[in-house]
Amino acid sequence: MWFEGGGSYERAFGTADTATGQAMKTGLHTRIGSVTKTFTITAVLQLVDQGRLRLDAPVLQYLRGPLAEQLKRVAGADAVTIRQLADMRSGLFNYTADTAWLAELQADPNRTYTPEQLLGVAFKHPMDFSAGAKWEYSNTNTVLLGVLVEQLSGRSLADYLRDHVLEPVGLADTALPKGAEIPSPYAHGYTTFSPGGASVDASSWNPSWAWAAGAMTSTLDDLHTWVPALTGGRTAGGGPLLKPGTQAERMRALPTGYPGVGYGLGIAEVNGWVGHNGELPGYETVAAELPQDHAVLVVIVNSDEDRDQDDGSLSTLIGRTVTEIATPDHVWSLPAEAQPDATPDATPSAG
Asked: Whose CA is closest to 94, among 68, 129, 65, 70?
């Protein structure tokens, strides 16, 4: 936790690698799960600023190729807009809730998935509700937006993010991997999302199944840098990451149906804290700012073996405990049923 002009608290506890006994350190790389969504939606909003997308236009106005034909066959999908994808109100089925697909992933977590395969799983299902009718977290939304970034920019999402988001903000240790790679030194991540439920090291598992919704890697320092850039819409040099009007649209958090939790365009608000958290097998993250106190909170955990936690995750438990002390009027308290994550063995709900 960092307070502008008021000091900081940076600590590492526990073990980064149980095989060697290596202690956890603050400088290790980690997988950040659904915090990835904040980067992908930033890319989408940059395309809005460039006039290549309109927030309230139907996604089918822009989507090309076989995926467009598949989406057209989903009843009601013609009404889904770019904004509804970004703020989790599209109604599109969340592919990580498909039980057959989950069993496939659990049996072979090293498998490589393409965005087309992931969306193909989602588009086989009817919509959960009419576009815009309510809020419901769905990884399908962000994967579909990632495809649009690639189609409209003519570049891979990883390359676009590197050149237009990561480098301008000064994030040298953040990336969207092409496969299972994670830069060294890194924290090994542990999960029970395995055949038989045994605790296993998931750090080498392929996160392609989460792609634009949850596959990125980063570090404590980079996330500390990213959060103010995300909430302020500014680059490292002070220039605009997004136009002021677009940034204002992003930050306009609407109710989700969960007390104290709102959601904007790829960004959550939790009792005054603005940012995102995420999970995938072996890793959990919280990255958020309390603007009125100029405070930044980053929590990184190398385990998701927490399904019995009342808080829903270890990262939320830690975030709540720290903020109860440091910002008691604004506690990071995210309901278990509203955990923003990309974890396939959890109920994917809040964003």
From this structure: 129
Hey, what amino acid is at 107?
A
pLDDT band at 223 (very low <50, low <70, confident <90, very high): very high
Q: What is the pLDDT of residues 9-35, one digit of tens each?
A: 999 999 999 999 999 999 999 999 999
Between helices 139-153 and 115-123, what is the axis angle to 10°?
130
Q: Is the distance from CB of 202 to CB of 343 less than 8 angstroms?
A: no
- Report how far residue 118's alpha carbon sits from residue 101's, in angstroms, rounded to the nearest whole number: 9
Cβ burial 312-350 (10 Å sphere, 16+ → b, else e) = bbbbbbbbbebbeebbeebbbbbbbebbbbbbbbbbbbb
For 261, the token pair is 């939790």
State which H helix or E strand residue 25 sits in.
Answer: none
- Which residues are catalytic, by number? 34
The beta strand positions in the chain, using DSSP E, are: 2-3, 7-8, 15-17, 22-23, 30-31, 190-191, 200-201, 217-218, 254-255, 261-263, 268-270, 273-280, 283-290, 295-301
Q: Measure the CA–CA gap between 175 and 32, rounded to whole angstroms.
A: 10
Spatial CB neighbours of 248, under 8 Å, sequence gap ≥ 6: none
Per-residue confidence (pLDDT) for residue 342, from 0 to 100: 46
DSSP-assigned beta bridge partners for residue 277: 286
> pTM of whole model > 0.70?
yes
Torsion angles phi and psi, residue 49, rounded to 5: -60, -30
Of the pLDDT bands very low, low, confident and very high (cuts 50, 70, 90), residue 311 is: low
Share of the chain above pLDDT 90, in %: 90
Can you tell me the distance from the alpha carbon of 298 to that of 285, in angstroms, rounded to the nearest whole number?
A: 7
